[in-house]
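Ticket #4471: structure export looks truncated?
Reporter: QA, pipeline team
Priority: medium

Steps to reproduce: submit the single chain below to the structure queue and open the exported record.
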Amino acid sequence: MSQKHDIDKPAEIEILPPESESRPRYRSRTRIWIGGTEGVKVIKVGPVGAALLTLASAVILAMGLIFFASAFVVLLPIALVVGAIAYLTGAGGNPFRRGH
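Actual output as written to the record:
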């Protein structure tokens, strides 16, 4: 009988107070947080800043090239061994051989 009484009873409204300014306004469920309305600041880069930016870009590019070159050096012998085994075992077949 108490279940029927609970169904007939209207739901209570919960009013939450506004958040205080001392706490951040983002919720734990969202990953996007907007901190203000300043927007994007565009600044002029001086000669020293441009040189440092160019140097940093060159270092990152060199590291990427070294990574890919070392991966090629490591994988090349493996590919050659697999290719030699396939050639010696005839795994690729002979497209010029006539079937009798």
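Status: closed, not a bug. The export was complete when the record was re-opened. Leaving a note from the reviewer for reference: Residues 67-93 form one domain.
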